[in-house]
Amino acid sequence: MTLLEPGMLVRHPTRPDWGTxxxxxxxxxxxxxxxxxxxxxxxxxxxxALEVVDAP
Length: 56
Hints:
56 residues, 5-stranded antiparallel β-sheet
């Protein structure tokens, strides 16, 4: 599992329609991400391996 930190850009592996998201907070396995097209969502990182997007 990748260590996620606030400010990192990520994508959900099975929901590309959500667009790129920015990590807002990380509390244990719970990661709050603000996605371009889905808004702010709480992701369980123990179940979903968010893909880190390289910054341009």
